[in-house]
Amino acid sequence: MPEEIETADKVGSVSPTRYAEIVAELRKLVESASRIQFTIGDYALEVEPMRESGGQDRSDDLFTVKDSLFRLAEDIGLSYASVKDARWTASRWPGQHRVEGLSFTVHKILAALSDPAERFAAALIPPKGKTRWTADEARRRVGRQVENPVTSQEKISAIHTLAADEEVAATVTSDLLRRPTVVAQVKQDDKVRVVEELTRDDHVAATVTTGLLRRPDVAFRAMSDDTARHQVNHAQVERGRQAREHFEDTSAAAPAIRSIDRSVEFLDLVTACHSFVAAAGRVVPGMRDRQLGEDERVLVHENVARVRATLDWIETAVDTGKVDVDGELARLLQGE
After folding, report:
1. Residue 81 needs a FRET pair 20 to 30 A away by CA distance; which of 1, 97, 218, 228 works?
2. Residues forming a β-bridge with 56
3. Rounded Cα gap, residues 316 and 25, in angstroms
4. 312-333 per-position pLDDT tens digit
5. For residues 336 and 329, what is the distance between their CA atoms, to the nearest angstrom?
């Protein structure tokens, strides 16, 4: 049991006491390394002082500056990027403002603060609740992405960065959409936008729509939308027309069946009229002594107008053979 407690208190493979000793030794080395990096930066500044144009540093755009720094980097065995960063950081932190005990890395991150007074003051005051600056705290201070995200927003930013590649983003999105608990937390408007984007392809949209309309509740709610219902009806009529044209163009039996079709259409029309009259004869008497409300009366009158227009259309079609509808009649039939 004592061994388990000791193991639980360890940091990695060492005890807390040994860990504290290691941290103290490494902090001394980091301070030494920071002084070395600032020294490299100061010497690089001596070789090539910062040059400003129009209030902005333009030194990196000058070939002669890069050439000099590249030569210096090669002569001391460092990379050009290391020397350039050291030079820029040293230029942002004059000697008197460099904070003892603060790593060169933190100085370099805080150097992104454009206002010198704000920059120098920030280095002297650790973040709230902290005893010293860390690299991630410095990144938070200047608005950069941290290496170890803690808050939800930091994790989201990290994911966005990792998913910058389109292929990676597509794979991650596919995986996340398979998690019901994740999908459940997505706002409804966002879900609608996602579905709209995913169904831009007509083939995909048709497949998804077919699957959704097999769900009774979805089909009922979809058909409650006048426009959707009209489009479905129009599609059914169009599909029937195309099938009929295909039959008439390809079938040898088409001429013989045309006369039968006319009889069927006649019977369908008579049946429709009979059904309407029968339904009205059944419903209207039941309204005896009943007063409808204003909204109800308006709705009934609107539908009566649609019926009258439809009856006129039927008479025209029967008398002339013309079944085309004008714009006003089309709007009435669609309930507009």
Report:
1. 97
2. 53
3. 101
4. 888 888 888 777 767 666 666 6
5. 10
Interior CA angle at 83 toward 81 and 88, to 5°? Answer: 95
Residue appearing with tokens 């497949």:
207
Model confidence pLDDT, tens digit, residues 3-20: 434 455 899 999 999 999
User: Rounded CA gap, 135 and 142, in Å?
Assistant: 11
Those residues whose C-beta lies under 8 Å from the C-beta of residue 188, and which sit 6 or more positions away, are none
Q: How far apart are CA 259 and CA 255, in angstroms?
A: 8
Q: Enumerate residues 6+ apart whose C-beta is below 8 A from 43.
A: 72
Residue 267, classified by CB atoms within 10 Å of its CB into exposed (0-12), middle (13-18) or buried (19+), is exposed
Render pLDDT for 88-142 as a digit per residue (tens, 0 to 9).
999 999 999 999 989 999 999 999 999 999 999 999 999 988 889 999 999 999 9
CA 20, chain centre distance (Å): 46
Taking a C-beta distance cutoff of 8 angstroms, is the pair 121, 82 a contact?
no
Burial class (CB in 10 A: 0-12, 13-18, 19+), 333: middle
263 CB burial (10 A radius; 0-12, 13-18, 19+): exposed
Distant-in-sequence, close-in-space partners of 57: CB < 8 Å, separation ≥ 6: 50, 51, 88
Q: In 3-state terms, what secondary structure has residue 324?
A: coil
Q: Which distant-in-sequence residues (6+ apart) come within 8 Å of 126 by Cβ?
A: 132, 133, 137
Task: Please report, in angstroms and rounded to a whole number, the separation of the first and last CA atoms in the chain.
Answer: 81
**Position 218 pLDDT exceeds 70:** yes
142 and 112 Cβ atoms separated by less than 8 Å: yes
Match 């392809």 to its residue by tokens. 201
